[in-house]
């Protein structure tokens, strides 16, 4: 699916959530078969022509003004993250070079690898925007899985999340994590430019995971770079860990993700015990 098709599906899904009454239009009992707003109703409420909106939804116009995008977003009651996603789908971003199938063989700087190792016993990893794992430290491997033992094409967090049954044991709230990660991938797709990697992941997961198909059809989008995830490890039990994501200034295409436990919490005690256990031969 090319980006214009992604735009069309996204806008259709958002139109389906809003009724004519929501935007002050009369509801016509005319046997309508369209859920939510028709294109002509959205165009009327947003103050643009039906022809222009139709072409915009189909990806057949150039850059769209902020005024029009704001009007459409307001009618559709988009969240701030959905508004950002809409802008990126409509107006795009600087084109990235097309990639060959599979993840690019990104090699982080030696200093970044050393920093990752020195963060131990804090679980940490380096990943790309589409969650290809570039490097992971010892405690990251203990907490999740050994991505470095996988073929390069399989070292991806969302791929592991949906296709490896072990991931459902690692994440105590697997479905919540899967929904959030799917929403991140949709945002990455909107920012992809000419890169084929996000679409390759979507196509593989669509073919192999019914759960992914279900979550992807919801058209959720997120750009959140922090939060709390609950991990389960058979040796210590369940831990609620805070995660933060940072983009190194010199390597803006990479994200450093770290997991920490609140000071003095049971989760800190368990994470400390797990780190000590992992050091025991």
From TrEMBL:
<dbReference type="GO" id="GO:0003677">
    <property type="term" value="F:DNA binding"/>
</dbReference>
<dbReference type="InterPro" id="IPR010982">
    <property type="entry name" value="Lambda_DNA-bd_dom_sf"/>
</dbReference>
<dbReference type="InterPro" id="IPR001387">
    <property type="entry name" value="Cro/C1-type_HTH"/>
</dbReference>
<dbReference type="Pfam" id="PF17765">
    <property type="entry name" value="MLTR_LBD"/>
</dbReference>
<dbReference type="Pfam" id="PF13560">
    <property type="entry name" value="HTH_31"/>
</dbReference>
<protein>
    <submittedName>
        <fullName>Transcriptional regulator</fullName>
    </submittedName>
</protein>
<dbReference type="InterPro" id="IPR041413">
    <property type="entry name" value="MLTR_LBD"/>
</dbReference>
<feature type="domain" description="HTH cro/C1-type">
    <location>
        <begin position="32"/>
        <end position="83"/>
    </location>
</feature>
